[in-house]
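Quick bug: Restriction endonuclease output formatted oddly.
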Amino acid sequence: MESVPVRCPVCRRDHAYITPVYPCPCGAPTAPRLLRGAPAERITHRTWNDDWVAVRCTVCGRRDQWPYPELCCPCGTVLRIPVRPLAASAPPPPGPSHIPLPRTAAHPRPAFRPMTIRTARDAVAAAALYLSWLGYREVVQARERPASRIDIRATGLISQVDTATTPTVVRDVECLWLNALNASVAGVLFSLAGYAPDARQRADGLGLPLFVMDLTGTPQPVNGPADELISTGA
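Here's what came back:
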């Protein structure tokens, strides 16, 4: 696995980013090649096309689209990690046999198996999978998003998954917290584009766990309540 130093342009915190590895259908581990020395880009607006990068397997030569490498800084900023452009096509090595394998991203906690996010519905499914991994029971996804914007319900829990291309705002935090309070359950918020600073501050004050998800489907905690939830589980 390749590692590069990354500095957050907002809080100036330094990170050591290790690129995730994905299984090619031939079975070989595959990962985007990181561009050393290039500054990370802050993500303030998402487009589905920009969230994918072409990667070629070094074993069989197959070219696929994989989620663009991203890092969530503890300050709440979501960063896109620069990658090297893909070189011109080369003929695949002779003789490799392709064995279809599920496209799941590697994760430092082996017990959790994330799912790749390609659509907004995938994001909700990935969040539901993560909540089940945390120990919540009877996790159910809404077939169509209700007016309350509650995407997932479980025993003792409601959750919202913000798939917008801009950071989650404070209003979403307060609405989820009020809905959870009225139902006497806990609330958890997931976002694809991170959180506005006042939204994160408000969530900290309310004790509402915030997670950000990249397109590998791996939620990352961005505040203290989320860290505590991971430690204790449901």
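Actually, after a second look the formatting is fine. The chain has two domains: 3-80, 120-232. Closing.
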